[in-house]
């Protein structure tokens, strides 16, 4: 198993499944006829593991249903390059972020100044990236990558997305009225899907729990949640339980501070119509 984000994710989930079953390394090894050292190397992504071996482990651990199919698919896919690995030399943190998005069960995005990336149109993303100094020769590829990341929202088993968007992001006319009108139509359309919820943090709420900064919380079927903080040229992952808990508490506060989904759609529609009138 190559030391890749997907390989490490599988190893981590197999370790979590063993602990959930209440088995030690030695006990699982005895049940499979493998050495304790072999189990340990699999669980730390130091050893390659075939789908058949993963299936045998899941049999002993009594992992069934969707979790079983998901882990078997992950095991089969490890040896196949993902779309973001084909002919691309992307920063490690970006590939790690994309991999985490692919595996997440739920993503919660708190955004202050812009529409969240998973909901952006091509034109809006292009304006953001141009303003951020992305070189012309890399611009279209970077825009395309952000668009491809959005596929997790419409696949067979889509990720659940919760987005908290500060109203200031709606006030900022990124790309001008026409781009903003298109962008807000897209957000409204995306929010009609059962797995996408958009909540606006209105200006009149004053201070709120998201003002400390934009962040993304990702939750997984078995692994513990992680937080991603995006910087200008890089980002940082936070996975310490105590640190992550602070962000979970912030989201809990935002639930009570944000407009409900219906009121949020009304706010989005109001801005959409305003930009449409300005574009004509």
Number of distinct helices: 12
For the biggest β-sheet, the strand order reads 3-2-1-4-5-6
Strand content: 5-15%
Distance between the termini: 56 Å
In total, the number of strands is 6
SSE pattern, N- to C-terminal = HHHHHHEHHEHHEEEEHH
Fraction of residues in H or I helices: 40-55%
Mean of all residue-level pLDDT scores:
88
Q: Which structural class is indicated by helix and strand composition? A: alpha/beta
User: Mind describing the biggest β-sheet?
Assistant: 6 strands, mixed
Low-pLDDT runs of 5+ residues are none
Q: Taking Cα atoms only, what radius of gyration do you get, to the nearest Å? A: 21 Å
Q: Can you characterise this structure?
A:
The structure is a single chain. The protein has twelve helices and six strands. By secondary structure, the chain is of the alpha/beta class. The protein starts with a helix and ends with a helix.
Short description:
The protein is α/β, with parallel strands linked by helices.
SSE layout and pairing:
Elements lengths: L4 H16 L4 H8 L3 H8 L7 H11 L3 H13 L14 H12 L2 E6 L10 H10 L4 H14 L10 E7 H5 L5 H14 L5 E6 L13 E5 L6 E5 L4 E4 L2 H17 L3 H19 L1
Helix pairs in contact: 1-4, 2-3, 4-5, 7-8, 10-12
């Amino acid at each position: 198993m190559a030391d890749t984000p997907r390989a490490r994710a599988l190893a981590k989930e197999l370790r979590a499944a063993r602990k959930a079953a209440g088995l030690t390394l030695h006990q699982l090894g005895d049940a499979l006829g493998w050495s304790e050292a072999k189990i340990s190397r699999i669980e730390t992504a130091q050893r390659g593991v075939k789908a058949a071996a993963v299936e045998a482990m899941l049999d002993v651990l009594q992992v069934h249903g969707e979790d079983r199919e998901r882990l078997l698919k992950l095991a089969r896919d490890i040896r196949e390059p993902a779309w973001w690995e084909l002919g691309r030399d992307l920063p490690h943190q970006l590939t790690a972020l994309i991999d985490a998005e692919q595996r997440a069960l739920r993503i919660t995005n708190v955004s202050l100044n812009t529409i969240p990336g998973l909901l952006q149109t091509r034109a809006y993303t292009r304006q953001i990236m141009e303003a951020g100094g992305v070189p012309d020769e890399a611009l279209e590829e970077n825009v395309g990558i952000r668009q491809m990341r959005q596929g997790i929202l419409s696949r067979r088993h889509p990720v659940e997305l919760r987005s908290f968007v500060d109203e200031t992001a709606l006030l900022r006319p990124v790309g001008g009225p026409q781009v903003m009108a298109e962008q807000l139509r897209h957000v409204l359309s995306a929010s009609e899907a059962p797995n996408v919820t958009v909540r606006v943090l209105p200006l009149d709420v004053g201070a709120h729990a998201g003002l400390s900064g934009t962040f993304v919380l990702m939750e997984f079927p078995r692994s513990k949640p992680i937080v991603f903080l995006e910087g200008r040229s890089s980002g940082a992952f936070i996975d310490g339980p105590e640190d992550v808990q602070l962000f979970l508490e912030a989201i809990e506060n935002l639930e009570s501070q944000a407009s409900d989904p219906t009121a949020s759609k009304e706010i989005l529609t109001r801005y959409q119509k305003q930009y449409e009138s300005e574009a004509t």
